[in-house]
Amino acid sequence: MATTTANQQAAPASPGPLKRIILIALIAIIAAGAAGAGVWFFMSKQHAPVAPATAAEPAPSPVPLFFPLESMTVNLQSDDGQQHFLRIGLTLKLNDAKTQQELTDHMPEVRSRILLALSNKHPEELAPLDGKRALATELQTLIEQPTDKGAAPIHVQDVLFTEFVVQ
């Protein structure tokens, strides 16, 4: 009978390692499920506000149109008795092709305004950066003036210098 008692005691020892394996597998499944739930939560949170944000954003502004003018050379005012001149190249930043067509139709008048304004400048006025910025603003105002009586002013976004030589 001693052998039977030894067999009975050995039998309960086998469920212990099986319980450990099941417990480890259960923990691994729970951890994988938690990781999957975390990934799903953060990915869905990232994509949810995309639709409202695009609706709230303003529409992109139209691509500007750049309209280059022919280079101009003009004599400058001089107090020192020497001959000074300015060679200038301009490009206008416009909103649309309609504005470009209006400028093209009235280009002789626009160029005349620009040349008259430039011929009244002194080289000392144009040398510093602030003088160039002031000139760009002045030219923009001149170009925007209506060419016909009663016509609406032309809108120019910016006057850009492509060439600027004072001698």
Describe this structure in words.
Keywords: Cell inner membrane, Cell membrane, Cell projection, Chemotaxis, Cilium, Flagellar rotation, Flagellum, Membrane, Transmembrane, Transmembrane helix. The chain crosses the membrane at residues 21-43. Controls the rotational direction of flagella during chemotaxis. This is Flagellar protein FliL. This protein is an alpha+beta fold and 167 residues long. The protein has 2 domains: 2-56; 65-166, Tetrahydropterin Synthase, Chain A (2-Layer Sandwich), CATH 3.30.479. Helix content is 54%, strand content 16%. The chain is built from 7 helices and 4 strands. Strands 1, 2, 3 and 4 form a 4-stranded antiparallel β-sheet that branches. The radius of gyration is 40 Å and the shape is elongated.
Topology order in helix (H) and strand (E) letters: HHHEEEHHHHE
CATH class of the largest domain: Alpha Beta
CATH topology of the largest domain: Tetrahydropterin Synthase, Chain A
Question: What's the number of domains?
Answer: 2
Gyration radius (Cα, Å) is 40 Å
Transmembrane segments: 21-43
Membrane topology: Single-pass membrane protein
Main location: membrane
Protein name: Flagellar protein FliL
Summarize the structure in short.
This protein is an alpha+beta fold. It has helices spanning 2-10, 15-47, 50-56, 97-105, 107-119, 123-126, 129-144; strands at residues 65-68, 72-75, 85-94, 158-166. It has two domains: 2-56; 65-166, Tetrahydropterin Synthase, Chain A.
Indicate the topology.
Elements: H1 2-10, H2 15-47, H3 50-56, E1 65-68, E2 72-75, E3 85-94, H4 97-105, H5 107-119, H6 123-126, H7 129-144, E4 158-166
Antiparallel strand pairs: 1-3, 2-3, 3-4
Keywords: Cell inner membrane, Cell membrane, Cell projection, Chemotaxis, Cilium, Flagellar rotation, Flagellum, Membrane, Transmembrane, Transmembrane helix
Function: Controls the rotational direction of flagella during chemotaxis.
Membrane topology: Single-pass membrane protein
